[in-house]
Write a structure and sequence with these properties.
heterodimer; A: mainly alpha; 21 helices; about 0% strand; globular; B: mainly alpha; Non-ribosomal Peptide Synthetase Peptidyl Carrier Protein, Chain A; about 60% helix
């Protein structure tokens, strides 16, 4: 079930009413668990089996880690291998099989290997990371192992964040499920505002822009200007889409008295690659930081076998660059099995390493001489748009072709297409920019004023009307892009 | 011998090249603009060197503020 289909609205109204009528945390959790399975099984019932298996693997692994400390490492390994194994099987099996098949063919052998035609179970990438973090935290003794299986399963299966995150940490969410929740009107209003804003971003902004952007990347011979306008459009679209999804997740969770972590913090205002990762898909990048990047930097095994002694400051830079390489490769692979996701990861590794080098080499007096952000923020944004292009192109071969085009060439139709795309992108970006400015300057004042209620209600109505109009109009493609 | 927080302040000033840094137990990465994931690793490596200890990744990821770092260091130094 998708957040932006009418069925979800009916589903959520029923869940919301039942949840607050129950008024006992144990029954509430049981209800959440049942409806989460309904929500997830709606797509395909067997998906629930995989979800349940992954969740129970970590439930058992964490218990065993605590109960049999001498075998803690073994159980941690089982959890990691089980989760990564499931992810790798569904995500990459066909990719490798196809690659293997064509390799056989290229050396003249008959190709008898077949792809299984697997589809990636929805949410698998998110919930396996979430359950793994639980086991690792217990193993690290940063979290108490849980015995109540319902509370634990609700933490894994909670429907608002099951399918596309935020990738929650047990330390943040589990205690919330373990204590009674009280109905609070302002909490529900704030949750509803957030969810509606998220739906608006998805339905009105992202989905309006999507068909224009898609056309650029299916057009046979786009001009360079069209491609860059497409990359810019995709940059705007993907943030509206993903942060919209996150806001619906956080908003609906808040209406049920559960506060989920934030996933986006104005990522396009970042002034460096590192700052970008602190602002973009935060729950995922902090996961990589805590469970991959830091172990790569500090684990005794890495220190013993992989550090380069006596080459400071190059030792530190090499150390950082290597840890970044593995982290960004993992990030690319997590997104998908095609080569351009790997290239995208490598692009951020190169950016991160160059940044680390510059940080070490540029003297502090130069850095402190003035506020560089007016220059570094647009520069980083240009790097982000380029990254989005790598992310979005259908194949790396096409990317190479795109980048060698004459930037100023183009037919009249192509220039019109570029202008239209840029105009739609700007029109879509404007509400997001206005909302950002409002959240900085207006919202803090408004929250303390008596006008909050009427302003909120007006905005809800306006957003709902806009969604009604745009949801019906979406999907109409613009003719000029076909040329 | 100077206290742990004084020694830490010296390491912070050295790593971030800023003599105005004053640490309290409540100081977090949010209080120092340049304290990002990369600098955190550089900082922790320098703290290790200066105090003659080794951290593991659980300890580094479990730190929430400077207070946590001081407690960790004190526990290590006490155990020596």
């Amino acid at each position: 079930m998708s957040f932006v289909e009418p069925t979800f609205l009916a589903f959520f109204v029923l869940v919301f009413a039942g949840y607050w009528l129950l008024n006992d945390r144990r029954w509430q959790n049981l209800l959440l668990l049942v409806v989460s399975f309904v929500f997830y099984g709606w797509i395909h019932p067997w998906l629930m089996v995989l979800l349940f298996a992954s969740a129970m693997l970590d439930y058992v692994a964490a218990r065993r880690i605590v109960e049999t400390p001498d075998r803690a490492n073994l159980w941690l390994g089982l959890s990691v291998v089980g989760n990564i194994g499931a992810l790798a099987f569904f995500k990459y099996f066909d990719f490798f099989i196809e690659g293997f098949g064509s390799a056989l063919q290229s050396i003249g052998l008959q190709n008898d290997v077949h792809a299984l035609g697997l589809f990636l179970p929805l949410g698998l990438s998110f919930y396996t990371f979430q359950t793994m973090s639980y086991t690792i935290d217990v193993w690290r003794k940063q979290l108490d192992m849980r015995t109540d299986v319902v509370d634990y399963l609700v933490y894994v299966c909670f429907f608002p964040q099951l399918v596309a995150g935020p990738v929650e940490r047990a330390a943040n969410v589990l205690p919330q499920f373990e204590r009674p929740r009280t109905f609070n009107q302002s909490m529900v209003r704030s949750g509803l505002s957030l969810a509606l804003w998220g739906a608006f971003k998805k339905v009105v902004l992202a989905d309006t822009l999507a068909p224009y952007v898609d056309l650029v990347f299916v057009t046979k011979e786009p001009s360079a200007a069209m491609i860059w306008a497409g990359a810019l459009g995709f940059t705007v679209q993907v943030l509206a889409d993903f942060s919209g999804y996150t806001d619906i997740a956080r908003g609906t969770a808040r209406m049920l008295g559960i506060e989920l972590m934030d996933n986006f913090d104005h990522p396009y205002l970042a002034a460096s690659p590192m700052e970008f990762w602190q602002r973009w898909h935060i729950s995922f990048s902090t996961w990589l930081r805590d469970y991959l990047y830091l172990p790569l930097s500090f684990s005794p095994w890495v220190r013993k076998y992989l550090t380069i002694p006596g080459t400071e400051p190059w030792g530190y830079l090499a150390h950082t660059s290597r840890a970044l390489f593995i982290t960004m490769l993992a990030s690319g692979l997590w997104h998908g099995s095609t080569v351009n996701y790997v290239a995208w990861g490598m692009y951020y590794w190169a950016l991160g390493s160059a940044y680390a080098y510059a940080q070490a080499k540029i003297p502090k007096r130069v850095k402190r001489k003035r506020n560089w952000r007016p220059f570094t923020v647009p520069l980083m944004f240009a790097f982000t748009v380029t990254g989005m292009l790598i992310f979005r192109v259908p194949s790396l071969g096409r990317l190479g072709g795109f980048l060698t085009l004459n930037p100023l060439a183009g037919t009249q139709d192509q220039w019109i297409a570029t202008t239209v795309l840029l105009s739609v992108t700007l029109a879509v970006a404007l509400p997001s920019v206005l909302a950002m400015l409002a959240s900085f300057y207006v919202l803090p004042k408004l929250e303390r004023s008596p006008y909050l209620l009427p302003v909120q209600t007006t905005l809800w109505t306006a957003a709902s009307i806009a969604m009604f109009i745009f949801a019906r109009g979406a999907g109409a493609d613009f003719v000029y892009f076909q040329f | 011998m100077s206290s742990t927080i004084d020694r830490l302040t010296d390491v912070f000033r050295d790593v971030f090249e800023d003599d105005d840094i004053t640490l309290t137990r409540a100081t977090t990465a949010k209080d120092i603009a340049e304290w990002d994931s990369l600098m955190n690793v550089a900082l922790m490596l320098n703290v290790e060197q200066s105090f003659g200890v080794h951290f593991n990744s659980s300890e580094v990821s479990g730190l929430k503020d400077v207070g946590g770092l001081i407690d960790l260091l004190d526990a290590r130094m006490g155990a020596k």
